[in-house]
Automatic annotation (TrEMBL):
Keyword Iron belongs to the record: no
Gene: ftsA
Pfam family, one: SHS2_FTSA
Matches recorded under HAMAP family: FtsA
Similarity section: Belongs to the FtsA/MreB family.
NCBIfam families: ftsA
Entry superkingdom: Bacteria
Subcellular location, record wording: Cell membrane
Organism of this sequence: Polaribacter filamentus
Membrane in keyword set: yes
GO biological process, one term: FtsZ-dependent cytokinesis
Function: Cell division protein that is involved in the assembly of the Z ring. May serve as a membrane anchor for the Z ring.
Domain SHS2: 7-195
Principal localisation: membrane
UniProt name for this protein: Cell division protein FtsA
Length: 443
């Protein structure tokens, strides 16, 4: 299989690390050819806290994916989340040299690159610059300005910012695991591309991805990303509460949560009891399921209220910002029983569980469409899109190069060569070069 047709998504989570190798089949659906996962030991709340352990976990996941697929993984698309992520809104404009020409992709790139140069707080770096609406001269609310005439091109941007050190640590782990880093994507954006339909994004929807260490939120309206946030709680705090509340060890608490846990305390009777073996010769513990679901309910309610506050801050209660499609829950934490009912009860919005199976080929393994793999599938989709773009541009360059050399024909080459690089070149090259220097000095 041609290596340029496959891509690899690497989801570095707080509980698990997943490496997913895939390609597009002839129907444009994604075929997963290999998947590897390992327990994530060096990550706390979405941020790398132990480099050595994270490198080992990445290598383990990658080796497993390689042995399943029989392919060698060279570079990966990695997701970033964690409590250091924040987002802001920014407007910027460029004045075009020649308003007789139509606006092309180059103009939009110039505008995006200009936003990339924004001065951030010390120790912060821009991860994504996402255009929302454009304004050409004085005509506002333009979704797609390419092909229009105009002298001044303006846009509102959603800018996602993260800590340089956290981004560098991820880069360091990937480099030390013997892999190339082809791009970094915000995890809630990746999950969104895996589980949301275009109609939902148009109507207005909030995607809540409940992971082990963080809960990620992405809000879409009119097909455009409007708000992102990372809340530093996830499934692990629920497990911790069960551990404390029932005086049991973490492994038992996690199993209890998965097997018997429910977010709705009303439905367990007082008489339902689980017996847990005691530690080394101690008496077994008896725990009522009612108590268990009370503990889970209290913590889940807190997480949902945090998220709901973000949704209200975005402006869900205004007529213009109303999220008609409600809420989509995904991530490992979305598998908790009765979570959907609790979310609907607290927020008064419709909710559904998001499975990442819409874009997967029909014969995919059932396990892959679990909400826990939403981010990995999303990262894989981002990677494949990028590969296809690069292929198309290479094709154009090739065609231009093969044409007879007249001065007029040779002119466009440098522009196209420029575009071979990922769109975020200003940030990304700067970041990769910075990373290389940093690593070379560190070794």
């Amino acid at each position: 299989m041609e290596n340029n047709k496959i891509a690899v998504g690497l989801d570095i989570g707080t509980t698990k690390i997943v490496a997913m190798i895939g390609r597009k089949n002839e129907y444009g659906k994604i075929e997963v050819v290999g998947i590897g996962k390992s327990k994530s030991l060096g990550v706390k709340r979405g941020v790398v806290s132990n480099i050595t352990q994270t490198i080992q976990s990445i290598q383990q996941a990658v080796e497993e994916a390689e042995s399943v697929s029989g392919l060698k993984i060279e570079d990966v698309i990695v997701g970033i989340a964690g409590q250091h992520i924040r987002s802001l809104h920014h407007s910027d404009y460029i004045t075009r040299d020649n308003s007789e020409d139509v606006i092309n992709e180059g103009d939009i790139d110039n505008l995006v690159n200009q936003v990339h140069k924004l001065v951030m707080l010390p120790g912060e770096e821009i991860i994504h610059v996402l255009p929302q609406e454009f304004k050409v001269d004085s005509q506002a609310d333009i979704k797609e300005p390419i092909g229009m005439y105009g002298g001044r091109l303006e846009a509102n941007f959603h800018v996602v910012v993260g800590q340089v050190s956290s981004i560098r640590n991820i880069g360091r782990c990937i480099k030390s695991a013997g892999l190339g880093l082809s791009d970094i994507t915000l995890e809630p954006l990746a999950s969104a591309s895996a589980v949301l339909s275009q109609e939902e994004k148009e109507a207005g929807v909030a995607l809540i991805d409940i992971g082990g260490g963080t809960t990620d939120l992405a809000i879409f309206k009119d097909g455009i990303i409007r708000h992102t946030a990372v809340i530093p709680f996830g499934g692990n705090v629920i497990t911790d509460d069960i551990k404390e509340g029932c005086s049991i060890i973490e492994k038992q608490a996690e199993l209890l949560k998965i097997k018997f846990g429910s977010a709705w305390p009303g439905e367990n009777k007082e008489t339902e009891i689980v017996s847990i073996p005691g530690l080394r010769g101690r008496e077994p513990k008896e725990i009522t399921l009612k108590n268990l679901s009370k503990i889970i309910h209290a913590r889940v309610q807190e997480i949902i209220e945090h998220v709901y506050l973000e949704i209200k801050n975005y402006g869900h209660e205004t007529a213009k910002g109303k999220l008609i499609a409600g809420i989509v829950l995904t991530g490992g934490g979305a598998q908790l029983k009765h979570l959907r009912q609790l979310v609907e009860y607290i927020t008064g919005m419709d909710a559904r569980i998001g499975f990442p199976n819409e874009h997967l080929a029909g014969d995919s393994d059932e396990a892959l469409s679990s909400p826990a793999y939403a981010t990995a599938v999303g990262l894989l989709m981002v990677g494949l899109e990028k590969k296809i773009k690069v292929q198309e541009i290479k094709q154009v360059v090739k065609e231009i190069k093969n044409e007879p050399e007249t001065t007029a024909e040779v002119e466009p080459e440098p522009i196209i060569e420029e575009k071979l690089k990922p769109k975020k070149k200003s940030f990304f090259e700067k970041f990769t070069e910075g990373l290389k220097d940093f690593l070379d000095n560190a070794e």
